[in-house]
Amino acid sequence: MYTTYGKVNSFLLSAIPEFRERYKEEKQKHGKHPKQYMAFAALISMVVPALDFDGEPLFLARAFDAFEEMARSQDREVVNLLQVGFVQDLVRYPRRLDIAWRRMGDETRKLTTDTARAWNREMNLPAAARPGENSKAKAQAQGR
User: Fold this and answer.
1) CA dihedral sign, ordered 71, 75, 78, 84
2) What SS3 class is residue 135?
3) Residue 44 lies in domain
4) Under 8 Å CB-to-CB from 70, ≥6 apart: which residues?
């Protein structure tokens, strides 16, 4: 299932039931349905603490499954929303990125790697994701 930018809020509400209450709060605060970036920022305000403080695994699984669907979208605006709304900030924090990396699907990892390169934050990627680091990481894992 690929979502479009116009339907991304509905997609997120359907994919992540834990987000529904927070979305309602945003709607009440502004007196209308939040636009896509505002709704996504509200979701990310839940995801970041969950990553930082060992949040509910099911919530994180649902969130990262939704992120993977967004990363696979044919609608470039959906991919941009994920990149600008989450990934650009994520690549600044190595510990958080490492935790998130383990939950990411292939397309989300690719987007994250491309973003880290664009923002000169490749050093924050997990070692196995950095060019030339894969063999180094494997050697360390094998005790060499």
Assistant:
1) positive
2) helix
3) 5-141
4) 3, 8, 78, 79, 81, 82
Q: For Cα atoms 72, 124, 43, give the angle at the middle one, nearest 5 degrees.
A: 50
What would you measure as the largest C-alpha separation in the chain, in angstroms?
A: 60
Give the whole-angstrom CA distance, residue 97 versus residue 126: 8
Number of domains in the chain: 1
Beta carbons of 90 and 32 less than 8 angstroms apart: no
Q: Are 75 and 114 in contact (CB under 8 A)?
A: no
Digit-coded pLDDT (tens) for 33-80: 999 999 999 999 999 999 999 999 999 999 999 999 999 999 999 999
Specify the pTM: 0.88
Closest CA to 66 of 110, 109, 23, 12: 12
Angle between helices 94-101 and 36-52 (to 10 degrees): 100
